[in-house]
Structures are given as C-alpha cells and as structure tokens.
Design goal:
The protein has 370 residues and is of the alpha+beta class. The chain has seven helices and 20 strands. Helix 5 crosses helix 7. The structure holds pyridoxal-5'-phosphate.
Length: 370
Amino acid sequence: MPAEGFTFGTNRMAMISTATEIDIQRVKQSRLPETDLANPKFGRVFTDHMLVWDFADGTWQRPRIMPFQDLELSPATLVLHYAQTIFEGMKAYRSQQGDVSLFRPQANIARMNRSAKRMCMPALPEDAFLHGLKELVRMDGGWLPSGEDGSLYIRPFMFASDEYIGVKPSEGYRFMIFISPVRAYYQEPLRVKLELEYSRAFPGGTGEVKCGGNYAGGLYPSKMGQDEGYHQQLWTDAMEHKYIEESGTMNVFFIIDGVLTTPSLDGTILPGITRDSILTIAKDKGMPVAERKVTVDEVVAGLRNGKVSAAFGAGTAATIAPIKVIAYKGEDLELPDLGADSEVHRLGRMLDDIRKGRTPDKYGWVVHVS
Ligand SMILES: *Cc1c(COP(=O)(O)O)cnc(C)c1O
C-alpha cells in the first residue's frame, strides 16, 4: 500500500501502555464549526481524525492518528476481491457528569479478535487497541451531539491490504478506526419479514463473526423485503428455515408467556454485546429469561393467540428497536403498542442509564475517556 506522504516528526506522541507510541497529526482546521450536529445523517458525517495501524513484516507497525481522509489503494488490493475484512461497531456517550465514555469496549475488542481469527487475520494487541481508541475519542469528543439521543458511532475495521490477486490470506493488513456522530437510528417501530427463502448464515460459515461478506449476501433479500415495505428480514436457520436467528444487524428478543426469550448462540448468530447486556440486566432484575431455540411456528402462533406480547431488535446502532409487525408468508402479524412503562422500554432505559452514568455501573461496563 502506498504511503500517505505524511511526516509525523513534529507531532505530539502519545504513550500507550504496551510502550507503543501513536504518531499524532492534527487537522489544521476542524470541520466541526461548519457541521450540523442537530440532524446528522446516520453514518454520513465523520469527525476530524482517524486512526491507522498497519500490519507488515509479520508485526504491527506504529499506529497513527491523522486527519480523516480518503485511502489510496491498488486495484489489486486483496480485500476488494475476496472480502477478507472485519469490523466492529461501538458507541461513545456523554455521561450525566459531562464526560465522554465508551460502553464495554473490551467486549468489542475481544470480538474483533475472534473475527480476525476466523478470517485468518492477525490479532490486535488489546491494550494498544483500547489506548488508540481512547486517544481518538478524546481528540474528537467535541463531535458528540448534545441531547439524549446523541452519541458517537465508532467503526474499527481491518482489511487485507496486499497487492495481489491470488486467493490466499494477505500478508499485510490495515486496521483503522473512524467516528461518526449520530442520533437515533430507527425513528419508528419496525416492520420485519420472516425470511423463509434466503439465508444470512449457515453452520460452519461466518455468521458468528463480523466480517464484511455476511452483509453483502444479505443485501438482495433485504432489498426485496424493503420493496415490499419491511425494514429488515427476520432471518431463520439456513437448513430448515424453522428457527429464528436474528434481524438485520440486530439480535432479536421476544416476550413469550412473560419470559424474555432470545435465540441461543449456536454458531450462526452474531453474539451481540447489547444482547448480552440486556440478558445480564434482566437476570439481575429477576426477570424470567430464556436463551433457547425459538421456532418460527411458536412465534407465529404466539402472535395470533397473544402469547408473544413483545418483540424487539437489540444492537449498538439502534439499542432497542421495538418490532410492530412480523410478516409471515404474506400476512402482517401485528404486535401490541408498547407503553412507555413496558418491560421492553424499561430494559432500554436501564441500559441507557448505565451507559450515561445515571445509575451506578455495577458491572464495570463503562470506560471513561475524558
Ligand atoms: C453487530 C451485529 C449485532 C449486534 O451486536 P452489538 O454488539 O449489540 O452491536 C447483531 N447482529 C449482527 C448480524 C451484527 O452484525
């Protein structure tokens, strides 16, 4: 990969705990004053800086933080052909005390390294990852939109950077982090479609890691669903289309007979950190919780007879996204409206209260940046 042509000699160095230093080059002029943070389009506005960390000659090189900018890549760059790429998604919030904090970043880092392993990519040193992440968020923390629904969406990713078109694991990789200021993701309750034809993931495949190819394969069925008026697919297992797996880029929960129920992680479902956080909080509050196989049949029957009283998606981008309609073979099965004091919204608020420092963080999930 060609060098960017920057010189870092005169810039500040930040020490990180693994004794790696980050070269820092700040923007000459921030774009923040001319950016409208009142209504940023989700995922289309980016902060001033990005982190770049290359893996070359069998080792991680010196990480850099530099102005957010385009990449220059050879057309033969491996990732562009065979999708050897992984990513993460996490958020930073402004706490009640006014500082910027991350929610469970170590869980994202650990998951990224599991993804890396599955995709034949080098593991990232966890301490250095966290330190680089904190440094970047500290530098661009001023971009965090004010108000209850404002956050910074943080996108770490890694890709195969060799200039070579044979099918084999790359020798060089580029890891990067950039940040997008965001507000609420879904404004309205979701309409989802039980997908009984196409599949997102299959046993032995890559469904349980966050690799780019998983999403490319889902675009076509999602597009068809959207043309029919649904926000997302509700994916089912690839073998029989009998078990519900997850929805779009979210894990899925149902309240069935009063039990908070979510499909168990069986290798084809992405182990969401939001999912895990909700399960932890719900168990702690004494709510009945079940992680098990959830069949299409029981959910369809439960929607008809009222045993399924709520359904929602859970993920970093949307946090908790209530589901209003589940379509089954052309029929829209409706869920009751959730009042503000419903269990679903209460769970969402409990999670939010921890993220924003309004309740004690008894689980040790919050990492302060500033
Ligand atoms: C990222 C993702 C999730 C949610 O994970 P979180 O850690 O909660 O953000 C769920 N399903 C898929 C397919 C995902 O890519």
